[in-house]
Amino acid sequence: MTDYRERAARLDRAVVWSVSARPGPVPVYPDGCMDLIWTEGALMVAGPDSRTFHAPAAGASEYVGIRFAPGTAPALLGIPAVELLDQRVELAEVFTDRRARALVDRVDNAPDRVAALEAIAVELAAAAKAPDPALTAVVDLLAAGGSVADTAAHTGLSARMLHRRSLSAFGYGPKMLARVLRFQRALARIRAGTSAVETAVSTGFADQAHLSREVRDLAGCTVGALRTG
After folding, report:
1. pLDDT of residue 178
2. What does pLDDT average to over the chain?
3. What's the whole-model pTM score?
4. Residue 211 belongs to what H/E stretch?
5. What's the confidence (pLDDT) of residue 112?
6. What is the Cα–Cα distance from 161 to 124, expressed in whole angstroms?
7. pLDDT of amino acid 61
8. What is the pLDDT of residue 52?
9. Does a cis peptide bond (omega within 30 degrees of 0) precede residue 56?
10. With 60 as the cut, is the pLDDT of residue 1 above it?
11. If you ran DSSP here, which 8-state letter would residue 209 be given?
């Protein structure tokens, strides 16, 4: 049986989570986020996904992670999100081997690994530049269903500048980010028991057929499969 837990992190716009005895494969749907994940002697960085990632069956008994909201992790890790698009890499590919090994050892030897990983994230954030309010606004506006054009106008960014900065912060352009965030709104409604028709209308899709196409494209499954997947 899987034991999954999560809570809001001490770091703004982040969630810490843990899971044990994970079966597999497990679908990880696109959400625009990036994760720092520990498991038995390794720290991994999960980049933003543009399609569903199927996590293999657990090779370890415990996983701990911190999930950063879209646009948050690149400043902490010092790497553009687009370089990690659809990838899972060892932390040593982002930091030096020595620094990565020290952080791995720190979590390995901690009595509370969730707290240890959370503390590392807080320290990385303290050493990084403050979040760009324009990019935070981009996420919030698109997550609320705003259009890309209105988002650009609100933030004062040209279409070209918005696209360039989005690649660095989110891993893909604002149109793709909008699609991913709209999918997440729909996923929440579907799992809450809302019908496909109501979900499509309330989350910004043209109709139920549009919702079905996007679910197949981003999740690789049917709308019905999302209810339990």
Report:
1. 98
2. 93
3. 0.93
4. helix 208-219
5. 96
6. 27
7. 79
8. 95
9. no
10. no
11. H
Give the model's pLDDT for residue 227: 82
Nearest CA to 92 among 105, 109, 75, 110?
105
User: How far is Cα 77 from Cα 89, in angstroms, rounded to an integer?
Assistant: 12
CA pair distance 98, 68, nearest whole angstrom: 24
Tokens representing residue 223 in the block: 């709308």
Q: How far apart are CA 69 and CA 34, in angstroms?
A: 7
How far are the Cα atoms of 6, 83, 115, 148 from residue 64, in angstroms, in the given order?
A: 10, 23, 10, 34
The domains found in the chain, sorted by start residue, are 3-127 (no CATH), 133-226 (1.10.10.60)
Note the helical H segments in 88-207: 97-108, 113-127, 133-143, 148-155, 159-170, 174-191, 196-202
Could you tell me the two tokens for 119? Answer: 């503390």
What is the structure's pLDDT at 3?
A: 81
Residues 70-75 have a mean pLDDT of: 96
Tell me phi and psi for residue 205, to 5 degrees.
Answer: -90, 155
Phi then psi dihedrals of residue 18, to 5 deg: -145, 150
**Tokens representing residue 83 in the block:** 């370089």
